[in-house]
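>> received
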Amino acid sequence: MCAALSRRAEIPSLSGAEYFHPIFDNFAEWLRSQNASDRTIWSMSGAIKHFIVWLDCEGIVLSDIDSAVIRRFFRHRCECPRPQAERYQNGITRDHAFHGRVVRFVTFLIETGHKPAPFDRCYGDQLVADFVGRLEVPERSASRVASYKSQVSHFLDWCWFDGLALGEFKSDVLDDFRNHQCVCPGHFVHKPVRTKDQIAQVRNFLSYLTHRGIINGTHRSAGREPELEGFRCWLFENRGIRDITVDGHMFRINKLIGDLGTDPDTYTHKHISQALLRHLKGASRHWVASMTTSLRMYLRYLATMGKCAPELVDAVPTVPHWRLSTLPRYVVADDVERIVETADPATPTGARNRAILLLLARLALRPREILELRLADIDWDNAIVRIKGKSRVEVGLPLPQDVGDALVAYIEHNRPGTVESSVFLCAKPPHGRMLTSSAVTSVVREAIRKSGIRNPNLGGAYLLRHSAATNMLRGGATMETVATLLRHRSIQTTSIYAKVDTNLLSAVVQPWMGGEAC
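>> returned
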């Protein structure tokens, strides 16, 4: 403390030209090498000189600068002295431009060796390029690939800026990244907390690095085995399924691994059956079916990697299921209109909900497709909305007039002003995108409640999809037309709706052999 006070008192007696030499002169030359003009260099000088003085007063050497030091500087209550003949304003508003100048200076320190770099930034860029190259498949949209590239680049920039080497990841690295107050170069205006989807993208990147042997996998959550990281990477790269589906398989196998064991060499038909029986005792039919599906997928992965015998996949019992044994839940066309009309277009929330309900009712969209709809997916000139289904294949659906009108009313007059590209946003600040299918289900259930329809078994968001298919068949549409709207790859999937087409059934039913009922 005494040394800091002594230094603070000494600074005003020093010449500015001598005090900032050579570090600021070197910084100016570095900027010129990047084609910065003299005016740009002059505009940055105040923030950088202030930062250098503050570091001196705090006794912080250049090699010890990290994001925590930078945030302290941004927050400090300024009483910093100035060397002689220096006119910069210490108390100037520390806005994004001010922050950006300091971040650029620290970037200069790392690139020129004043602060040690944890890894070569060009190497990090190549890792991102290799990872993104694996994502560029027809089943995955360009916007999704761009989102991945942005998040993994941000993660590596955060590591590079904070001095975190690739081989030094700890188990809480994802938590630290999720919650860090961002001062990363090129990213410092990002939201203060990363979303679950963004963290899932980074987790997949870390699994990829682990699979390549670049990192040792210490980033795994507690209790997650190394083999599961390879399983995640295999699902992600080879199965063409959604991130949320990958997370579902990972969740279920992580639950089962305690009973199954972590060594594939010990797996036998008997061992697998006993592990399932222990884990699934008392479980619901739905959970048993999901668990056995995930286990078959895991065993296929192990067999592909040569770590277990392929025939072990057949050791997983099949849950009995009779195709078309259930009936789709639906409501008649008049009740669909009653549900849609419950949304008040005069309010922002009502306008949003009306657009959601109409997309579900007219185009039979799935809840996840509502969440993933982007502004760029709507082709207003040709009245087409582009939808990415389960297989990530993009299809164009015609945009009915009432759906288009509802979307215009929401987007132009009621949607919060934000850079978020998702069409539908949360009604409450900070107006982020709707994250889970349950949000869409809540909109539908609230509309059903307001409509006065009394049926506790109606369900949620899929009700309107099922109703659209059923009412189309009853209105005379062919099974092929309905399958096209629902985007089913097989007509057999659509055939379940024939069971609730009463007009069709009455035409083929045979008379009761006993004659008329008495």
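>> The longest helix spans residues 38-58.
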